[in-house]
Design brief:
Structural class: alpha+beta
Shape: globular
Largest sheet: 6 strands, mixed
CATH topology of the largest domain: Cytochrome Bc1 Complex, Chain A, domain 1
Strand order of the largest sheet: 1-2-6-3-5-4
CATH class of the largest domain: Alpha Beta
Number of strands: 11
Helix content: 40-55%
Number of helices: 16
Radius of gyration: 22 Å
Length: 428
């Protein structure tokens, strides 16, 4: 169990510590999680969290740009960071005796990141180029438009990278103010897992981070998405060799009692998968959507996913359809499978297979010390360690009646956006 022997502590400056000792391998992983992502961004500043993440790799007043990477690589370690809708995280996995280097780096850039004006402008070019690269992918462009249509009020409507118009206008002072507001010990969770003594590691973390002053209280996210009342459609036309479909429904948050039934529903439709943004497709060839669309030749691929988030987010179904494929039939088949979930209880055998596969994916995805530290930190961002401890039990308690109930509650037309990217070579 990932939460077994978990040492939890909160420092005087508000930093939460999650430390787990395990000697399965002579390595250790340290993650620093901040409660800030695109959910915390205001109109006109979309993408600011992702940009700040980039800037924290640009050196500090103590260490010049590039030295963090050189130090970690010299010790044979792995070092990276990422931003998502609810959080930003940085991590390093190293030989256990060298994990102090990761603590030193994260404590340094929590306080001393430079945000050099020249580097800020250079990174503007990098991020806009990254966004423009995404714009060459039909799936990304469709996702952006459908996600925006799926939320009327909540900042989840914005993609993490932000709108290009905002990226062109965000100033260095905007980035630095965001850094000082959110990247503080009282808005962070430090997670360490590996071959060390837990109490000793907690003491080392306090040694590096304990004197960092608390930051201001982060402003709360007040926006709440209103109850959807209208079915919505989106269509993009553009170049490409295939058509792309994306269907979204509002879905329960990680804390909602409906979350685990929704995970099981997803597994019935698409097989066992991991949770976004870490998980990918899994054991879906025997699942309903694959059999109905790919085995029949109607679609090239089909996927479904549900994410664990702070606020209600999205349950998504995507499909890729051949240039000469029947788009209307693909859409009809998917909606028919959703209606079937509402009208016919899932058999116990099918549900058991779906849950067993999901449990296996969870186990496979939490074997290494890096993934264990990831799961502990991720859970602390969207819920808490108790949620993680009860993850498998929560799945095991799901019944066919639960699946039918959440299908009837969430998979309804008013809660749905249907989006198509139509290859302009043929409109079907």
């Amino acid at each position: 169990m990932l939460t077994d022997n978990l040492l939890t502590r909160t420092l005087a400056n508000g930093l939460t510590l999650l430390v787990r000792e395990t000697h399965a391998a002579p390595v250790a992983s340290f993650w620093l999680w901040y409660r800030v992502g695109s959910r915390n961004e205001q109109p006109g500043l979309t993408g600011v969290s992702h940009w700040v993440e980039h800037m924290l790799f640009k050196g500090t007043s103590r260490r010049p740009q590039g030295e963090f990477d050189r130090l970690i690589q010299r010790e044979g370690g792995h070092f990276n960071g990422m931003t998502w809708v609810d959080w930003t995280t940085f991590y390093a996995t190293l030989p256990a005796e060298r994990i102090g280097l990761a603590l030193e780096i994260e404590a340094d850039r929590m306080q001393n990141a430079l945000f050099d004006p020249t580097e800020t402008e250079n990174e503007r070019t990098v991020i806009i180029s990254e966004r423009e690269g995404n714009e060459n992918r039909p799936g990304y462009m469709l996702r952006e438009q459908v996600q925006a249509a799926s939320f009327l009020a909540h900042p989840y409507r914005h993609m993490v990278i932000g709108w290009k118009e905002d990226l062109r206008r965000i100033a260095r002072d905007d980035l630095y103010a965001h850094y000082r507001q959110f990247y503080t010990p009282n808005n962070a969770v430090a997670v360490a897992v590996g071959a060390f003594r837990a109490e000793e590691m907690a003491g080392r973390i306090e040694q590096f981070f304990g004197d960092i002053p608390r930051g201001p209280a982060p402003p709360p996210v007040r926006a709440q998405e209103p109850q959807p009342r209208a079915r919505r459609r989106v269509q993009l036309d553009g170049p490409g060799g295939a058509h792309y479909l994306l269907i979204t429904h509002h879905a329960p948050s990680a804390r909602d009692p409906d979350f685990f039934p929704m995970v099981a529903l997803n597994a019935v439709l698409d097989g066992a998968t991991g949770l976004p943004p870490f998980g990918g497709g899994g054991l879906g060839r025997a699942a309903r959507l694959y059999r109905a669309l790919v085995n029949s030749g109607l679609a090239i691929s089909v996927n479904a996913s549900v994410a664990a988030t702070i606020d209600p987010y999205l349950f998504t179904i995507s499909a890729t359809v051949r240039q000469d494929g029947d788009r209307a039939q693909v859409e009809q088949v998917i909606l028919g499978e959703l209606e079937r979930l509402k009208n016919e209880p899932v058999s116990k055998d099918e549900l058991n297979r779906a849950i067993k596969g999901t449990r296996a994916m969870f186990a496979y995805g939490s074997e290494s010390v890096t993934s264990q530290a990831m799961w502990l930190g991720f859970a602390s961002m969207v819920t808490d360690a108790d949620w993680l401890a009860g993850f498998l039990d929560g799945l095991a308690r799901v019944t066919p009646d639960d699946i039918q109930r959440v299908a009837r509650r969430y998979l309804i037309p008013a809660n749905r956006v249907i989006g198509w990217y139509v290859s302009e070579d043929r409109h079907g």
